[in-house]
Amino acid sequence: MTDPGLSDATYIEPLTAESCIAVIEAERCDAILPTLGGQTALNLACELSDRGEVEKRGIQLLGVNLDAIRRAEDRRSFRRLAIDAGCEVPRSAIVKSMNEARDVLEKLGLPLIVRPSFTLGGSGAGLARDRETFLDVVASGIHRSPIGEVLLEESVEGWKEFELEVMRDAAGNCVVICSIENLDPMGTHTGDSVTVAPVQTLCDKDYQRMRDAAFRIMELVGISGGANVQFALQPGSGRLLVIEMNPRVSRSSALASKATGYPIAKVATKLALGYTLHELPNDIVGSTPASFEPALDYCVVKIPRWNFEKFKGACDALSPQMKSVGEVLALGRTFNEALQKALRSLEAGLDGLEANGNSELNDDTLRARLCVPNPERLLSIKTAFSRGWTVEHVHDLTQIDVWFLENIRHLTDFEGDLRRVGFPCGGDRLLEAKRLGFGDRQLADILGVDEPAIARVRSERGIRPAVRMVDTCAAEFAARTPYFYTTYGEKCEADAADPKSVRKIMILGSGPNRIGQGIEFDYCCVHAAMELQNLGIETIMVNCNPETVSTDFDVSSRLYFEPITFEHVMAIIDKEKPDGVIVQFGGQTPLKLLHRLHESGVTVLGTNVESVDRAEDRKRCSELLTGLGIRFPASTFVTDAADGMAAARRLGFPLLLRPPYVLGGMDMELVYDEEQFERSLQRAFKASDGRPLMLDRFIESATEVDVDVVSDGTHVEIAGIMEHIEEAGIHSGDSSCVLPPVSLEDDLVEQIRSMTTRIARELDVVGMLNVQYAVRDDTVFCIEINPRASRTVPFVSKATGIPWVKVATRAILGLPLANPDAQRGAAEFVSVKAPVLPFDRFPGVDSLLGPEMRATGEVMGIAPSFGEAFIKAQMAAGFRLPAKGKVFISVANRFKRECIFPAKTLAAMGHSLVATSGTAKVLRSHGIRVEEVPKVSSGDSRIIELINNEDIVLVINTPVGKTSIEDERAIRLAATQRKVPCITTMQGFHSLVLGLDTLQDREFSVAPLQEYVRRYEEVAG
Prior knowledge:
Layout: H1 17-27, E1 31-32, H2 38-50, H3 53-56, E2 60-61, H4 66-73, H5 75-84, E3 92-95, H6 98-108, E4 112-116, E5 126-128, H7 131-144, E6 150-154, E7 160-168, E8 174-182, E9 195-197, H8 204-221, E10 225-233, E11 240-246, H9 251-260, H10 264-272, E12 299-305, E13 326-332, H11 335-345, H12 363-371, H13 377-386, H14 391-398, H15 402-421, H16 427-435, H17 440-447, H18 451-460, E14 466-469, E15 483-487, E16 504-508, H19 519-534, E17 538-543, E18 558-561, H20 566-576, E19 580-582, H21 588-591, H22 594-599, E20 604-605, H23 609-616, H24 618-628, E21 635-638, H25 641-651, E22 655-658, E23 669-671, H26 674-688, E24 693-697, E25 703-712, E26 716-727, E27 737-739, H27 746-762, E28 766-776, E29 779-786, H28 793-800, H29 804-812, E30 830-836, E31 857-863, H30 866-876, E32 886-891, H31 900-908, E33 912-915, H32 917-925, E34 931-932, H33 942-948, E35 952-958, H34 962-967, H35 969-977, E36 982-983, H36 986-1001, H37 1009-1020
Parallel strand pairs: 1-2, 15-18, 16-17, 16-19, 17-18, 19-20, 32-33, 32-35, 33-34, 35-36
Antiparallel strand pairs: 3-6, 4-5, 4-6, 7-8, 7-10, 8-9, 9-12, 10-11, 12-13, 14-15, 21-24, 22-23, 22-24, 25-26, 25-28, 26-27, 27-30, 28-29, 30-31
Helix pairs in contact: 4-5, 12-13, 13-15, 14-15, 17-18, 19-29, 23-24, 25-26, 30-36, 31-36, 33-35
């Protein structure tokens, strides 16, 4: 959405009131549409209104006015509104202080739900069952709420949870777009819940009660557009409570839009402009208006994607605060089929509903895992049924509706039947297995054969997938939609492939958002589809992520909402018969299918299989670099623990453990001594999947550089050379980076350019390539080669004004680069990319960065100078700029001299400094006033108390080595808990101070991306 071609003016600026005011002044805006940008947009609209900017400038809020936002978002106002609508709400109270909270506790009793006002993703929310937890969660909630307010609400834990996605126009017409049922009962954030559409266990009478209540609430709030209303239903009594309302499109809106094919955001925008539902056509059907409520003749299951393995020590219990980083969506004719397809889509090592380690739990542990919501609970339920536990017993433990449990038990019993019968099982039984969503690889594991044997038997018996259409009207009207899913035992609704028709190319998407692979790759897939269509080529998109643009029905010629697995991809290929498949834009997920697709005779477009393997396999990659005469860190390969320890002693510490074919640095670890190495080795071997494990001698104090490349097989064009701000050793996805480089000499940049060109030519790259380097003492080491698009591609495209994916797509089709020898000059502006880190979601997890990626997103800052661009990026990432106050500094010995200048600059800005003894001594010796505090390792907790009392406004902590990292962990945890900004790298410290200093000198400049692109084109000539 931040591409310059998508709007008339695109501002990539921090979402703050100051930035918005500057843009409003520059563009002379007439109106603001705040209902499409989630909670952030609503909060900004409220802040602008509170400052008087909206009224003073005569700006109109579209879709919802300030009073409507207040009525829906303010807990007290919404409670009154819901009661006026004739609805019951949970007993509750609003508090703004701890004393008020204690008084309410005495009146309402425990357990209580704590919900901060105006926060995103349930941030700060929690369920308190005891007094100590209650006081902790309330204190945190008051701190996190932008208005210092929390709602204390009677717990409805265990009740059934439902959501209605509703659309209303200015004339008062309302429709329900989608009804959604949470499989998980109340107590778990809906973003962390398994959800099902349409509702499965609700009688029509209760559904109509909810529908009527939602419409009355929409009317009283006064919204023109989309909204989401959440309900809790007490099983048995039928007591119905309204929980909350989002007066905007939400993450549930994205789910509802993809589940039904109804373009919610598009319709909501037109309703905000004054259109009515009857005036707008249904884009999928064409012959019906948007006022027709969608009807589904299939079942949709959404399952969240978590990354707890990235946050060692984090509690995986799910709560009212959202912890997932992505989600998948699957469609099937039945709940069971959709459930198993969704589990396969997660990219979590599951082939369907499996025990996945839960079978090893003893009964007491299994019982405990069932009682507390957690990412493994579905698998634990399966394990319980395999042990003969009754539905009633599992229901008592989980409070999950019996209907869902009966279906899961049926899957478990059916699997047991298959194991007893063995291979080959009868045709009817095999067809029933496919109708229940069992995948070929899953069946192979159950029946003790290989996956091709299952596929062969299916083919012999004529058991092939049918393609069904998503049409919003349950096939009542003829539809023109190109939106499909596969199932078994049904009539096929897709036209047979015509080999004489227009050229067709399939694009494999990136699957669910997770750490290491997010919407950056979806961006690449979408751009590839756009360019293919521009060239008159039909595009077939395959993906399973409801959060991304690639699964919008109008982005590609034909969309398949399916898991990115070999079986599902091959089924679509057999049906569509594309001329080729592109795998290099979807990240590691489609790349893992490359070998099997090639072996199956599929034409894979772009860089060939052999070249990909040479780059991805660490051993072959080292051989390639040796042949090119390019330095790389001293390394070796080991295949067992004994070899590993001997090699580690030979290379010396610190060492980097690098499994092949990993995503986001998964299981990559920087180790400092033999004890840590021994603990990490087995985990790394497991991640390497039988391939040799690489040990790298870690290059300390090095600058890391990322290079993105496009090649047509002959000519190589450097798209961008990015300098990392944090030193090598921190995963590139967690490091801020700057383009163009700001500290590398021209000859080093030219050397990197030359090396990258040679690598691309040696690998016969066709399409995109990413190469990473470490630079120390003017020596360049190549540390990684990725034979695909990288997560930096969208950033480089916006920073240079060139749609590099479209350039690469043309190269993949065999078209030469348009101007491969063009020399691009340096534009007079700087772009900085910064990570968004989720440590506030995971109390108790150390915020120290390392070689394993933990960022869940990224932002961009763009400005005439590096300091301004960097601080813009930090603000955009949620970094709270420190007010005047105390700054705590504790740096490793090798950084002590480096910290003198930024510390002196902070002091000159009016900050007072606090430091541990060694750092304080160095600062005093240079005339800097500093208050000394003891180290935490001495047993003194004074610095922790200062942080907890909010006397510290900024923490600088850069430990090196195992001892200092562990000793100072408590400081970083306290900073995270109190939302005190914490910098853990010296480069980050220097850059932050430079940015703060820039901020003192002048106000931020704002300019649309289109203006920066124009300047870049002028420089390029």
